[in-house]
Specification:
The complex is a heterodimer of chains A (281) and B (162).
Chain A (H helix, E strand, L loop, with lengths): L2 E5 L4 H10 L4 E3 L18 E5 L9 E3 L3 E5 L4 H6 L7 H8 L4 H4 L4 H6 L7 H7 L3 E6 L2 E6 L17 E8 L5 E7 L10 E10 L2 E10 L3 E2 L2 H7 L8 H18 L3 H23 L1
Parallel strand pairs in A: 1-3, 2-3
Antiparallel strand pairs in A: 4-5, 5-8, 6-7, 6-8, 9-10, 10-11, 11-12
Chain B lengths: L1 E6 L2 E6 L6 H9 L17 E4 L2 E4 L12 E3 L1 H4 L3 H12 L9 H14 L5 H8 L9 H23 L2
Parallel strand pairs in B: 1-5
Antiparallel strand pairs in B: 1-2, 3-4, 3-5
Helix pairs in contact in B: 3-6, 4-5, 5-6
Classes of the chains: A alpha+beta (281), B alpha+beta (162).
Chain lengths: 281, 162
């Protein structure tokens, strides 16, 4: 990327007014995405860059009984350093799988959620958890459910001209939490995918299940999830087969590559088996 | 742009493009060759430096982030007692890293010992996986860090009781 001018605001209000003056500016959080593009990068034209790294108010982390609120500039290392149980364990394991400890010292949660070309690792798990993101523009702010940032074709549709300030992560207990990364574990590969499955049970029945697979786009079918809710567990083999069949149809309608679909279906089947094993145990 | 920052304990300043990487600035402007520029995406770890007390890959740190910051490279770290502990610990354990990865391995190990003075083998392996060099088998590296941790703990004890 060719950088024309860099603005390093010290406060959020300075950042908001800088963005108002330069609506086309690129926002930079930890910089790991922007600067791992290689020497060429998208050097189409000179850009103004607003670096948010110096804004302390965007690093605040707090918790209530219902949710954890994480400032967007909290680094992934800071997130992992929170005491055990502060953030959901499945999210923790996802964050632990991103980059190396040194990369996590730079990379931020807000940056991870704001990449526009492809969903990065934290997005699928937080979307499944119905996390909310606060976006600020001028004096206005709004909370957006992360699922609303998935476009109709399953690709990211991140807001422009707004600054992501906080992420609110609900703390509902999940009986099953699976996050499985496909691709090289420590490398920030643009070709890695993430499979997430979360499930809640109540009185030996499945009360809530969410399955999201983020490859070159995000795949999630609320219809299939609803059809599974209320099923007795352990799930019967015919229930599993019918759900896997429904996901196979969903994949073929979505037009994703056969290899990605095959991986997704294997992971779906494995998640159901793990759910059954958990109940039997 | 003009950059003023603290490099290995000294106030320095230089001219750089906003998008220059710290690894490039260290090598080209200050002739500090301990940080190797290799993958330029942060995963090989060979350009490790300490930025405001945190170990980071300097290839992912843009010039503008260095303004007013404190940077320590392996050349500066070599002058500290922590480095001496690591050097002696690795030597005792027969696990001296090669010249190419030495800086990155020692800076990663030092970051771990700052956080966890008595690290487990799994933590050591996890931390040192940040450096893509395979000049030693993992068990030798674990022994090296654990021996260094002992030396460091002993030094701290004597300092506290002097």
């Amino acid at each position: 990327m060719r950088i024309d001018e860099v603005i390093v605001p010290a406060t959020l209000s300075e950042a908001l007014s800088a963005l108002k003056r330069n609506p086309d500016a690129v926002l930079c959080a930890g910089g790991t995405e922007l600067f791992s593009e290689g020497p060429a990068g998208p050097a189409d034209r000179n850009r103004t860059l607003i670096s948010l790294h110096g804004i302390q108010e965007l690093r605040h982390v707090s918790r209530t009984d219902l949710y954890v609120e994480v400032g967007s500039m909290t680094t992934l290392a800071e997130l992992l350093a929170l005491k055990e149980g502060f953030v959901p364990e499945t999210l923790r394991s996802v964050v632990h799988g991103i980059g190396t400890f040194a990369v996590r010292n730079l990379a931020t949660l807000g940056g991870n959620l704001s990449v526009t070309d492809r969903f990065r690792d934290c997005f699928p798990i937080l979307a499944c958890m119905d996390a909310l993101a606060e976006y600020r523009q001028g004096t206005a702010s709004r909370w957006v459910n992360l699922n609303r940032l998935i476009g109709p074709r399953g690709t990211p549709e991140m807001p422009r001209g707004e600054i992501l300030t906080r992420i609110r992560i609900p703390l509902g207990g999940w009986d099953l939490g699976i996050a499985h990364k496909l691709g090289f574990p420590r490398i920030n590969s643009r070709k890695s995918s993430l499979f997430v499955a979360l499930a809640r049970t109540d009185k030996r029945a499945l009360s809530d299940i969410r399955i999201l697979y983020a490859c070159d786009r995000a795949l999630r079918s609320r219809e299939i999830e609803s059809s599974l809710a209320g099923k007795k567990i352990p799930l019967l083999p015919r229930d599993i087969e019918s759900a896997v069949g429904a996901y196979a149809d969903y994949c073929s309608h979505a037009g994703i590559r056969e290899s990605s679909a095959a991986r997704f279906l294997t992971l779906v089947r494995r998640a159901f088996n793990q759910l059954n094993e958990g109940v039997t145990a | 742009m003009k950059l003023d920052f603290i490099l290995n304990g000294e106030d320095v300043s230089c001219q750089a493009e906003a998008g220059d990487r710290l690894a490039y600035i260290l090598r080209e402007r200050f002739s500090l060759l301990g940080a190797k520029e290799d993958c330029r995406s942060g995963h090989c770890g060979l350009c490790m430096v300490s930025l405001n007390g945190r170990a980071v890959p300097s290839c992912l740190v843009p010039a503008f982030r260095v303004r007013g910051a404190e940077v320590v490279t392996i050349e500066g770290f070599e002058l500290t007692d922590d480095y001496a502990d690591l050097r002696d610990g690795f030597r005792k354990a027969g696990a001296e890293p090669c010249e190419f990865c030495r800086g990155a391995v020692f800076l990663s190990a030092a970051a771990l010992l700052d956080e966890r003075p008595r690290p487990e083998a799994t933590e050591i392996l996890e931390h040192l996986s940040a450096v893509f060099c395979r000049c030693h088998d993992p068990s030798a590296l674990v022994r090296g860090v654990q021996t260094a941790a002992e030396l460091r703990a002993r030094r701290m004890y004597f300092r506290a009781n002097r």
